[in-house]
Amino acid sequence: MNKASISILLVEDNPTDAKLLQQTLWHLGKEKWRVVHLERLNDALKACSKNVFDLVLLDLSLPDSQGLNTLAKFSTTAPNIPTVVLTEFDDENIALQAVANSVQDYLVKGQITPNLLEHVIRYAIERRQILNELRECQHRLQGVFEQTSQSIVLLSCKGMIVEMNQSALNLWRTQQDCVGKPLWSLESWNLSSLNPGWLKSIIAKAADGEFLRHELQLRSANDFIQWIDFSVRPLKDETGKVVLLIVEACDVSEQKRAEAEMIKAWQQERELNEMKSNFVSMVSHEFRNPMSVIRTAVELLESYNHQLSDPQRSKYFGKIQTAIRQMQQLLDEVLFWGRSDAGKLQYEPTLQDLEHFCSELTQTLQLSASGKHQIIFRFQGKRTPVLVDENLLRYILTNLLSNAIKYSPQGGVIRFDVICQDDTITFQIQDSGIGIPIKDQQLLFETFHRASNVGTIPGTGLGLSIVKKCVELHQGQIDLESQVGVGTTFTVKLSLNHQSLQSLELIESGSDLQSLKHKSHRLSAGKNA
Ligand code: ATP
Ligand code: MG
Q1: Among the bound ligands, the one closest to the CA of 429
Q2: Do the bridges between strand 487-495 and strand 424-431 make them parallel or antiparallel, or are there none, so unpaired?
Q3: In the prediction, which pLDDT does 80 show?
Q4: Domain coordinates of the chain in residue numbers?
Q5: What is the mean pLDDT of residues 319-333?
Q6: Per residue in 423-455, is it b (16+ CB within 10 Å) or e — as a string?
Q7: How crowded is residue 4: how many other Cβ atoms within 10 Å of its Cβ?
Q8: How many CB atoms lie within 10 A of CB 61?
Q9: Which parts of the sequence carry 4-aspartylphosphate (predicted)?
Q10: How far is the CA of 265 from the centre of ligand 1 (A)?
Q11: Which of 88, 226, 271, 429 has the most Cβ atoms closer than 10 angstroms to its Cβ?
Q12: Which residue, judged by its Cα, is nearest atom 25 of ligand 1?
């Protein structure tokens, strides 16, 4: 068979008409066509399922089907074959309807000339090809439109929704029935209290040919807030007239969140840097005071040594010693803080006779306090050794008692109560000093924070932040009650854990303290591991 020949399915029940058509085709050149002639629609449909035809010449009045029904059945079964309808002279109306229903062309029997026939056949095939290509192209574009993750809304120049892809329906939380309505009627706009007037003006500008882009916040019914990158782009025809507006919007909430986190991290870093420089200036300031005391005292001793009486001399030596002690203390505190900040503080419990420990500590602090202060220590409850970390506990109590002394510049009584009851040890340190303003109370445990009423009382603001860490290492808690001008009470609660209960049993069964200490070391080693 000639490759260039066109295969034609002729469906015609009238033998005369069929013969006439075939003769006309042969007249045009036998080699140009390959014609299969059938008389019934069902036979034609079967043939189409088995063979490929380039064109069908279809008579609508067949023994098994009549009129437009014939066309409907045919195009349902063989939708891709270009179809030319054959009609009787008085059937032109039907033929026109058929053309409106995707038929490529029609021929009126009795008026078919060879040239007309060839022309109609070739054009029908060509038109069908163009239509197929157009459909494929449309199909591809529709696929992209529907499946892109970018949300796209097509608007008329007046802002009415023409089409919305699936991503846009999801983003704007709406359904297909919004087509034909204005964009500003969508619920997301109304919930977000975004001004519809603003959107209308944006659309008007875009209809005038401007491209506009904004970041918006949308709010959903359940108060979920989304950040949207929203743009309106005018689509122009070849004459430059705006025919459609393309609204694109993408959800940038994640980026916004990441941005906010970055800003937060940057702020934290800035605060940290500020804290570091505060720390440096604080520490240098705290060192400068005792150092200038030492310098002045040394200069006086050097220049006027012979003129000074013994009591005067020992007064200056005393000042030097106090200043050195202060610097030593500050250095210890800074080093201790450095270790706690690096997470290097260890909880290493040993058995302690709490009453003895606290009483010694009270005496030491009483000695270093001025004569204006009196520390009254009281112990209540079971007098049995308990497992605590000696260093951490010393740090906690020394700091709280020193603060009580330091922040009671008028002097007075400081009550130090220790209560060992049930499974809890409670330490309470109460002073009648300057007190702490409410606004500062929650911040005192943060590094370097000092209350606004400290005046000229020296300090770095490190003590309580370390105290808190030491308490936490004991899995305890610290609280405070304070009133400006009345006084302050700090309460630390540590729970007596399982090991200390075991040690109590051992004590009661008569073991000596040495073996208990040995046992507690083993226990603490196990705990730290
Ligand atoms: P240092 O690091 O030398 O202890 P500091 O005493 O200033 O310096 P913290 O012990 O951490 O630092 O105390 C923080 C702040 O809490 C103090 O600056 C002070 O304002 C306040 N404060 C602590 N204890 C008392 C108290 N008993 N009475 C009044 N204010 C107190
Ligand atoms: Mg302090």
Answers
A1: 1
A2: antiparallel
A3: 86
A4: 3-145, 148-251, 258-340, 345-528
A5: 88
A6: eebbbbbbbbbbbbeeebbeebbebbebbeeee
A7: 7
A8: 16
A9: 59
A10: 29
A11: 429
A12: 403
Is the Cβ–Cβ distance between 33 and 59 less than 8 Å? no
Q: How far apart are the C-alpha atoms of 184 and 186, rounded to whole Å?
A: 5
Average pLDDT over residues 130-147: 92
Going from the Cα of 58 to the center of ligand 1, the distance in angstroms, rounded, reads: 103
| Three-class secondary structure of residue 385 per DSSP | coil
Closest Cα to atom 27, ligand 1: which residue? Answer: 404
- Atom of ligand 1 at shortest distance to CA of 451? 20
Q: Which residue has the tokens 């008007």?
A: 204
Q: For residue 254, with 0-12 CB atoms within 10 Å meaning exposed, 13-18 middle and 19 or more buried, which class applies? A: exposed
* Mean pLDDT for all residues in the chain: 87
What percent of the chain is modeled with pLDDT above 90? 60
Indicate which residue's Cα is closest to atom 8 of ligand 1: 459
* Token duo for residue 28: 């045009």
Residue 341, pLDDT above cutoff 80: no
pLDDT digits (tens, 9 = 90+) for 417-427: 999 988 899 99
Could you tell me which CATH number the domain at 258-340 has? 1.10.287.130
Residues with CB under 6 A from ligand 1: 333, 399, 403-404, 407, 431, 433-436, 444, 450-451, 454, 459-465, 488
Mutate which of 283, 340, 403 for ligand 1 pocket (most atoms within 8 A of beta carbon): 403
**Is the Cβ–Cβ distance between 323 and 293 less than 8 Å?**
yes
- 148-251, superfamily in CATH? PAS domain (3.30.450.20)
| pTM passes above 0.85 | no
pLDDT at 3: 53
Structure tokens at 21: 């058509």
Ligand 2 centroid vs 401 CA: distance in angstroms? 9
Ligand 1 atom at minimum distance from 465 CA = 11
Return the best residue to mutate from 287, 445, 450 for the ligand 1 pocket (most ligand atoms within 8 A of CB): 450
By C-alpha distance, which of 379, 322, 323 is closest to 354?
379
**Ligand 1 centroid distance, CA of 443 (Å):** 11
Distances 379 to 218, 418, 486 between C-alpha atoms, Å = 63, 5, 24
Residue 67 backbone zone (phi > 0: left; psi -120 to 50: alpha; other: beta) = left
pLDDT digits (tens, 9 = 90+) for 362-379: 999 998 887 899 999 999
Q: In 3-state terms, what secondary structure has residue 425? A: strand
- For residue 330, report the distance from its CA to the centre of ligand 2, in Å: 10
Residue 186: pLDDT band (50, 70, 90) is confident
pLDDT of 296 strictly over 90: yes
Top-tier CATH class for 3-145: alpha beta
d(CA 366, CA 477): 26
User: What phi and psi values does residue 357 have, to the nearest 5 degrees?
Assistant: -55, -50
Which whole number is the average pLDDT over 408-417? 96
The closest ligand to the CA of 334 turns out to be 1
How many A from CA of 118 to the centre of ligand 1? 106
**Minimum-distance ligand 1 atom for the alpha carbon of 487:** 28
Has residue 261 got a pLDDT over 80?
yes
